[in-house]
Amino acid sequence: MVTFKLPLPMLLLFLLLNIFVCSSEVLYIPVTKDASTLEYTIEVGQRTPLIPIKLLINLGGRSLWVDCDKGYKSSTYKPAVCNSTQCTFSKSHACGDCIFKPQVQPGCSNNTCYIWGENPLINSFHDRAELAEDVLTIGSTPGVPLTWPRFIFSCLLDQDMMRQFANGVTGVAGFGRESPVSIPNQLALDSRFTKKFGICLSSSTQSRGVIFIGSGPYSVYNPKKIDISNDILYTKLIANTRGGFVTSEEYYIQVSSIRIAGQDIPLNKTLLSINKKNGVAGTRISTATPFTILHTTIYDAFKTAFIKALPKNVTIVEPPMKPYGLCFSSKNIKSSNVGPDVPVIDFVLHKPSAFWRLYGTNSVVQVSKDVMCLAFVGQDQTWEPSIVIGGHQMEENLLVFDLVRRNIGFSSSLKLQQASCSKYDNTIPV
Ligand SMILES: *[C@@H]1O[C@H](CO)[C@@H](O)[C@H](O)[C@H]1NC(C)=O
Ligand SMILES: *[C@@H]1O[C@H](CO)[C@@H](O)[C@H](O)[C@H]1NC(C)=O
Ligand SMILES: *[C@@H]1O[C@H](CO)[C@@H](O)[C@H](O)[C@H]1NC(C)=O
Ligand SMILES: *[C@@H]1O[C@H](CO)[C@@H](O)[C@H](O)[C@H]1NC(C)=O
């Protein structure tokens, strides 16, 4: 295996030179939905020799980190020496020696700097993620895999940080907004890609969705090749600097009201904005949450309005399982091209005419032959965002995160265009 041993500034220069030889491109990273945990994962290749690594997607994560405790073996692993360019570039907060293991190993090197590692499933942070570099292969520009000789990532040893990972997952793929070493920010060092990415989650555990990295087009087939990034409603990306390191990488938007079947539901508007003192409340987007979470008082109003808007001949039933809070007989629910014909839900953004519309396919789940449940969860969110938009609501929609213009775009259901996240363009260009 040939590796480049260029110092970082030269590597940057080398990448900048690409600007003259390459036009803008899009990197496609396939996304799998785990059937038992509903976690969204990607697979990358890492190390020398190269091995496949399964990673949980964390939108608000600062780096790509892996479990280094279970025999990390690589001839190209290089920990970041204290005060090196890598440490400064990654905004490392600390530096130290290996004190937790009898001898040094990847993840426990001497004179090495650390960044924060995080597991969004358990809301845990760790201050000793060892910064390092190694070979990484990630996604492909249609047909051509991308190899990165010295990708900066971090290494964790603490098994507590691996809790609740789906089977086979051994790390986290961070797509954070600010961190220079998050996946979109680091890949943007390659001038073919801009600091913009699109997430298109598949609703199926059988066929993979995709993350697009770069300015576009984001192509899928319906069966004609179409650019799904064309017809997108954008709203401002909100930085939550009040919550400190817990929220600094996260993606927030301003939801100004929620409509069910066209009617605004009564809400305490204080909960919809980020608290300027402590950074709680507001609306965050998270692929690590299977169903959108609503603050209990929002959920109660939401549920009441949804029941009221259902056809009168639909009977409410006791939720047969967690985490559902509202279930009903699906006998009298018709179906449509965008799923069960239930009341539409609009998340109204910066102005009344700007809303993200959710149809049955994104708002309910069929839990048994005759029972359907609302795919939203009510929870005590006193010290958390009031709304956490989760995976089920994003499936078969394109969400675009533009880190340069600082905005977030929503497509609504691709089913309206007879398209799907799993029918992406992954062919070799002719
Ligand atoms: C490395 O940087 C830290 C601050 O980030 C400083 O306290 C320390 O003295 C530096 N060490 C060396 C060897 O330059
Ligand atoms: C690493 O650092 C520890 C603690 O400072 C020291 O005891 C150990 O000998 C060092 N190991 C190597 C291989 O330098
Ligand atoms: C609205 O929510 C805020 C934050 O939880 C709370 O302090 C306030 O009392 C609530 N207002 C009403 C009218 O319930
Ligand atoms: C249930 O009500 C809806 C709307 O009110 C109506 O269109 C549908 O025909 C009814 N279904 C049955 C089986 O009565």
Automatic annotation (TrEMBL):
TM helices/strands, residue ranges: none
The entry's keywords:
Secreted, Signal
In the UniProt record, the signal sequence range is 1-24
> Would I find Transmembrane helix among this entry's keywords?
no
Q: Which domain of life is it from?
A: Eukaryota
Tell me if Signal is a UniProt keyword of this record: yes
Subcellular location field = Secreted, Extracellular space
What does the record give under GO molecular function? aspartic-type endopeptidase activity
**GO CC, one annotated term:** extracellular region
- Short name of any one Pfam family annotated for the protein: TAXi_C
Query: What InterPro entries does the annotation carry?
Result: Aspartic_peptidase_A1, PEPTIDASE_A1, Peptidase_aspartic_dom_sf, TAXi_C, TAXi_N
One GO biological process term is: proteolysis
Quick one: where is this thing mainly located? secreted
Where do the Peptidase A1 domain residues begin and end? 40-411
SUPFAM superfamilies with a match to the protein in the record: Acid proteases
The similarity comment for this entry is: Belongs to the peptidase A1 family.
What this protein is called in its record is Peptidase A1 domain-containing protein
